[in-house]
Amino acid sequence: MKINPAPLHLRPTGLRMRSPASERGFSLFFTLIALAVLLVATASIMRSSGLNLFSTGNISFQQDMVSRAEQVNVRMYELFRPGGALATNSSLAASSTANNYSALALSTNGQGIPLALINDTTFESAGVASNDINDTDSNTKIRYVVERLCDQAGDAATLGVKHCVKSPDSKPILGGSSTQAGMAIPPSFAPIYRVSIRVQGPRGSETYIQNTFLKPN
Hints:
Elements: H1 20-68, H2 70-80, H3 89-92, E1 101-102, H4 115-118, H5 120-123, E2 133-135, E3 140-148, H6 156-163, E4 193-200, E5 206-213
């Protein structure tokens, strides 16, 4: 007996063959995405490098301004050394505008900077502009004020620790004796002096520096 096979009916599936043009379109799409990611990463790296260079430049600039302020230390030595304008106790008992010196502590802002350095009008009562140190090579101007850390003018030995800030005594007097009262001021009493410096540089930059010291013998 001869059996005739039934004809096969193939059902179409959902699979379709992509054309070469379609594949090229997908490749181009993903290439553009990768390129965009690389551009963003490159921009971030350049921005980070720029910030690092800017920070490094600022630090170097500030260090240069601080080093130039060392000229004031030379000026202080000339004023306080023997024979200088502020070498004697009597010269230190009263303020001297001609030497940018105040026998009592100056008023300051919240950061401890004397207002005389911040405001030019206030400075006129503490010093003279002719004492400014002008460096034309670096385009910087240095202004300073020096103050004795006392709350009033007068002889420092007479004012004592009640009115002046003094350096720690390596051999403090803890009590009295038959010849000296416990609260007497020892001969080594010396108030602290503070010099405040403002350095103005290019592009409107400003740096403030403060040092404290004792009068050299």
